[in-house]
Design brief:
By secondary structure, the chain is α/β, with parallel strands linked by helices. The chain is built from 7 helices and 8 strands, in the order E-H-E-H-E-H-E-H-E-E-H-E-H-E-H. Helices cover 36% and strands 19% of the residues.
């Protein structure tokens, strides 16, 4: 039974994303007793990590759902606190990808502007997990992800349960087709 699920959004996203909204609605329907947590992450990876650590201490049995950069954070948190995690088109080495995005950024949902710095890239790299525990994870990766190479995630989580989606996109616009599978992995049971 699900007690708490934390949705961890990606780079320049928010808890108001399509996937978070859909997940919240389905949790309310299937597991109304569960706590749904979707924090707005700070731009600083070190500050985001601190916020996520506090959530893990407050909800020690929560299950994580991480999207893109949120999947990277979810992996770090899952290994640190022995949690289960669903990874949606996760970033595998975001410090490499985002090194090319140093400079002024704008959050796609909130409109907030901020500076993404080399220090932020170094903070991301400090959260790298060398060895994962495959049974903790469910990976959903879209072959046609236009932002990340899905093969990196398939290789990184090779011994974890995986759903590789033919076609698709980075935002998983077909997430409604998989939200039930996500919640099943999280431990949900039908309530009606």
């Amino acid at each position: 039974m699900i007690t708490a699920i934390a949705y961890i959004h990606g780079f320049n996203s928010s808890p108001a994303s399509f996937k978070a909204t859909l997940l919240r609605a389905e949790i309310t329907r299937r597991a109304p007793q569960a706590v749904f947590i979707a924090p707005q992450l700070p731009h600083s990876p070190a500050a985001a990590a601190g916020l996520l650590e506090n959530l893990a201490r407050t909800h020690p049995r929560m299950v994580l759902v991480g999207s893109s950069l949120g999947g990277y954070y979810a992996t770090w948190l899952a290994e640190k606190f022995a949690l289960r995690a669903v990874l949606l088109n996760p970033a595998v080495r975001p410090y490499e990808l985002l090194a090319g995005h140093i400079g002024r950024q704008k959050n796609l949902h909130t409109g907030e502007e901020y500076d993404f710095t080399a220090q932020h890239v170094a903070q991301l790299q400090s959260l790298e997990v060398d060895v994962i525990t495959p049974q903790r994870y469910l990976l959903l990766a879209a072959r046609d992800d236009e932002v990340l190479d899905y093969r990196m995630a398939v290789a990184r989580y090779r011994d974890a349960r995986q759903i590789v989606i033919d076609g698709g996109d980075h935002g998983l616009s077909n997430f409604a087709d998989y939200v039930g599978t996500v919640l099943d992995f999280c431990g949900s049971t039908e309530t009606d």
